[in-house]
Amino acid sequence: MHVRRRGKRIVLAGGGHAHLYSLARTGELIRRGFDVTLVDRSPYLYYSGMATGVISGAYAPVEHRIHIRRLVEAGGGRFVEGQIAEIRTEDREFVLEDGQTVPYDVASVCLGSEVAWSGLVENGAGALRVKPVVNTLEIRRRLLALGKERLPRILVVGGGAAGCEVAANTLALLGQLGIEGELTIAQGGESLLPDAPGRAQREILGFLRERGAKVLTSTLLTRIGDGVAWTSDGHKIPCDLPVLAVGVSPPDIFRDSRLPTDDSGALQLDRHLRSIGDERLFGGGDCVSFRGKSLPRLGVFAVRQGPVIFHNLRASLTGSPLHEYKPQKRYLYVLNLGDGTGLAVYGRFSWRGRLSWWLKHRIDERFVSEHSR
Ligand SMILES: Cc1cc2nc3c(=O)[nH]c(=O)nc-3n(C[C@H](O)[C@H](O)[C@H](O)COP(=O)(O)OP(=O)(O)OC[C@H]3O[C@@H](n4cnc5c(N)ncnc54)[C@H](O)[C@@H]3O)c2cc1C
Q: What percent of the chain has pLDDT over 90?
């Protein structure tokens, strides 16, 4: 009897943005004799670039999702649905919450990041977080339901790019529904979009204020309860729908698995995107730190890591030289403002208008459709 020899096992843990390049090339890996397995808790990846557009209705709920299960299976790989709980590098296996184990010869992790509840939210406050990004659909559902009952009061906590986009798209939805509502955006720092140039900060502040948002900067929230939030100086903000868009952090899994991490719990990688604790473990995206530094937690960084991960997974099994990852120095970031315009930021430059939105829409739509064949 002819027994098919098993190929070396490549496991992709999490079908995040940094793994899409490899997932789309599963067939090539299989043809070269490797076994490929993707483990994810969901068969879909929700593409963050289009996620806030779901709130305003610019995109339909399914328009921004990529069927990662189909990607891996179409190439002849295997999909395992489950929540990864631990990485046992000594045994070279992932342990899932249901006790299942997935062994590997070489693996890569791309498990994204989370918005922590940070002890701010009391039970029953009905808050939503912007991560996982599929939650933007729930924000829209809740706004539609609230709008039928009363004038909704929305509180967005966090004035970074995600918080500003959520606020802008919420205002757009209220406008479409013809509902006044109240929207407050609270930011701990002195300005919205703290990492953007001053012009972009002024632009977004003006944009949100013109549309009726209350913008509170240098405002720390201490507690969010049912229908109300409290600031550190004792002020109350009434709110029916609190949305947390405060900083993201990696999952605890790397610390729990006793792998070398930075202070935030991100897996520490070397210049080849390889864990400094295990030469058979690579990684990318929001859950890693690169050569002792955190990179911006943005999909554009994860996507650029994709080809390096793809090459290095194979190279580490065949003994070929590994590729180095060189993060981009400048990157384009376009905020979807929900009204058919975008705010583009590139290094020191920023510009707002329809062209910015059109550019973002083209880039995002093309990316999703390329991975949806
Ligand atoms: C509202 C919002 C808008 C954004 N817009 C942009 C934008 O326009 N441009 C941009 O560049 N960045 C944007 N970002 C940032 C972007 O979302 C992240 O940088 C990007 O998603 C990181 O990708 P990733 O590959 O690290 O993880 P993700 O894309 O989040 O993927 C992680 C994957 O791992 C899976 N997973 C996680 N944990 C487990 C587990 N324990 N077991 C099994 N599977 C698991 C998840 O199901 C998911 O499929 C935005 C973020 C937010 C919150």
A: 89
Testing ligand 1's pocket by substitution, the residue of 11, 12, 17, 139 carrying the most ligand atoms inside 8 A of its CB is 17
Q: Is the pLDDT of residue 373 over 80?
A: no
- Taking the centre of ligand 1 as the mean of its atom positions, its distance from the CA of residue 232, in whole angstroms, is 31
Ligand 1 atom, smallest distance to 136 CA = 1
CATH entry, 9-113+250-318, from 2.120.10.30, 3.30.457.10, 3.50.50.60, 3.30.465.10: 3.50.50.60
Q: Fold for domain 115-247+332-370?
A: FAD/NAD(P)-binding domain (3.50.50)
CA of 361 to the centre of ligand 1 (A): 18
The pTM (predicted TM-score) of the whole model is 0.94
What is the residue with the minimal CA distance to atom 38 of ligand 1?
111
> What's the confidence (pLDDT) of residue 124?
66
pLDDT at 121: 85
User: Distance between CA 372 and CA 226 in Å, rounded?
Assistant: 41
Cα–Cα dist 282/17, whole Å: 14
Q: For residues 55 and 338, is the Cβ–Cβ distance under 8 A?
A: yes
Q: Is the CB of 203 under 6 A from ligand 1?
A: no
Q: What is the pLDDT of residues 200-240, one digit of tens each?
A: 999 999 999 999 999 999 999 999 998 999 999 999 999 99
Nearest 10 degrees: CA dihedral of 268, 33, 75, 92? -30
Best CA proximity match to 7, nearest among 37, 36, 38, 34: 34
Q: What are 328-344's pLDDT values in tens digits?
A: 999 999 999 999 999 99
Q: Is the CB of 265 under 6 A from ligand 1?
A: no
Q: What are phi and psi of 252, to 5 degrees?
A: -75, -5
| Chain region(s) in the chain for CATH 3.50.50.60 | 9-113+250-318, 115-247+332-370
- Residue to mutate (ligand 1; options 19, 134, 286; most atoms within 8 A of CB): 286
